[in-house]
Amino acid sequence: MRDLLTDRETAKILGKRIDSLYKIVEAFDANADDEWELVEGEHFEYSGPPVAGANGRRPRRFSEEGVEALARYIEPTRKRACWVGSASGCST
Q1: How far, rounded to the nearest angstrom, does the alpha carbon of residue 27 sit from its chain's CA centroid?
Q2: Among candidates 38, 29, 41, which has minimal Cα distance to 4?
Q3: Is residue 43 within 8 Å of 63, Cβ to Cβ?
Q4: Taking Cα atoms as reference points, which of 80, 85, 3 lies closest to residue 44?
Q5: pTM exceeding 0.90
Q6: Distance from the Cα of residue 54 to its chain's centroid
C-alpha cells in the first residue's frame, strides 16, 4: 500500500490554503478534454463522505504523483504572478 498525503498536508506542500487547493482540484475535474487530469486510484483517493457546506466536495488524500501533477499546474501561475506582481522579483 502506498503512502497518501492528506489534503491539508498537500496544501501545505504546495503553499496553498485548503480552499485554494480544492479550487485547483475543481479546475482539474472541470474539463475532461484538457491535459490536466487527476485519476482516482493513481493521483488521489477519496477519504470520507462529502463535507457539509462544501457543495458535496469529498475530502481527498493525494499520492506523490498527484502532488506533482498539482505542482506542475500551479507553477506557470506562480511565475506569471511573480512577473506581474513584483518589480523587484519574487521569492516563491
Answers
A1: 9
A2: 41
A3: yes
A4: 3
A5: no
A6: 16
Percent helix, strand, coil in the chain, to 5, is 45, 10, 45
End-to-end CA separation in angstroms for the chain: 33
Where do we find the cell 463522505? 49
Beta bridge partners of 6: 61
Cell numbers for 50? 462529502
Going across the sheet that includes 5-6, the strands are 5-6, 60-62, 44-46
The Cα–Cα gap between 64 and 13 comes to 11
Q: What is the mean pLDDT of the chain?
A: 82
Rounded to whole angstroms, how far apart are CA atoms 83 and 49?
40
Residue 13 has pLDDT above 60, yes or no: yes
Give the mean model confidence (pLDDT) for residues 22-45: 87
Residue written as cell 462529502? 50
